[in-house]
Design brief:
Length: about 90
């Protein structure tokens, strides 16, 4: 492998790492969570309204809060799982 080929491969790896870092930042961002909670609330509220449930917009709060709680607790369980399922050789 030539120095030029190695530099090219390194550049490809660095570009990929930057994309992965941006994707990770998006996945863990508060803005993404806010959007998902909003879309969850709106879709459940519209569904409840369409099927005639009393006070659909008030009742849609509960599943939206459940989603919020799951986004807050999942990182805790993810870290626990990673720490307990690592293959140490």
């Amino acid at each position: 492998m030539t120095l030029e080929e190695a530099e090219k491969r390194l550049k490809i790896i660095e570009d990929r790492n930057k994309r992965v870092e941006v994707d990770k930042a998006w996945e863990t961002s508060g803005f993404r969570k806010l959007l998902l909670i909003t879309f969850t609330y709106l879709s459940i509220g519209l569904y409840m309204w369409a099927v005639g449930i009393d006070r659909p917009w008030l009742n849609a709060v509960i599943p939206s809060l459940g989603f919020l709680l799951s986004t807050l607790t999942l990182p805790i369980f993810k870290n626990w799982w990673i720490n307990n399922n690592r293959k140490i050789k």
